[in-house]
Design a protein that fits this description.
Blueprint lengths: L17 E2 L2 H10 L2 E8 L2 E12 L2 E7 L3 H4 L4 E14 L7 E12 L1 E2 L3 H15 L12 H5 L1 E7 L2 E7 L17 E4 L21 H4 L4
Antiparallel strand pairs: 1-9, 2-3, 2-5, 3-4, 4-8, 5-6, 5-10, 6-9, 7-8
């Protein structure tokens, strides 16, 4: 299976960086933490950062039922996720770049009304950024669940873009006495900071102490 490229998802520049296989798309979505959801309301474009989770071939978003996104299910959206893996230092300023992996999803939001699917999606949203947390945290109350909109976007019109490898300099610049290469970047967790009102007898969960991207 591959995601079929469309006119909107086909890369016009550097098409060799395009990926349409589910393995690449899923791995990027599963590793990311924050997506940006772009949409238009009354002619005004918006791009909102929010958490998300993937379950199978559906991407789940959540937000307040009073938000611009939650109030208007059935909107066309563009959802993007980007992982920054490094800084590309070329010999010329023009060819500086980044090592990255990104996914773009085009689709229409669907309001999740089935209680079981909504509960599974909200659990997946917590588990996506902190595996193991949903077993410890209090589940949402009836009031909290009523105030939360869960939206699904099917993974149908999808593309990934991946940049790896050396800097791409002009041939005549390779002789310049300028250092060129890659500075790798990675997210590393710091020392966890307990809540100032935390009961000191409550132990730190292993999933916090051992978290890694």
């Amino acid at each position: 299976m591959t995601y079929r490229p469309t006119q909107r998802t086909s890369l016009r520049r550097l098409p060799e960086r395009a990926r349409y296989d589910p393995e690449t798309v899923h791995s990027i979505l599963d590793e990311g933490s924050i997506c940006h959801v772009a949409f238009v309301v009354d002619g005004q474009p918006y791009a909102l950062p929010t958490g998300y989770a993937r379950m199978g071939e559906r991407l789940y978003l959540h937000g307040s039922t009073g938000s611009r996104l939650g109030l208007r299910p059935g909107m066309d959206v563009c959802v993007t996720v980007t992982l920054l893996d490094g800084i590309v230092l070329a010999r010329s300023a023009f060819h500086h770049s980044f090592q990255y992996r990104s996914v773009m999803v085009l689709g229409r939001t669907e309001l999740v009304t089935d209680p079981a699917e909504k509960d599974a999606a909200l659990t997946a949203l917590v588990e996506h950024f902190m595996p193991g947390r949903s077993a410890d945290a209090r589940a949402g109350s009836r009031r909290e669940l009523a105030a939360t909109a869960v939206l699904a976007v099917p993974l149908e019109e999808v593309s990934a873009k991946v940049r790896t490898g050396d800097p791409k300099d002009d041939e005549e610049d390779y002789g310049l006495p300028v250092w060129a290469g890659i500075l790798p970047l990675a997210i590393q967790p710091g020392e966890p900071i307990p809540d100032s009102r935390l009961d000191p007898t409550v132990p730190m969960p292993s999933y916090v102490r051992e978290w890694k991207r």
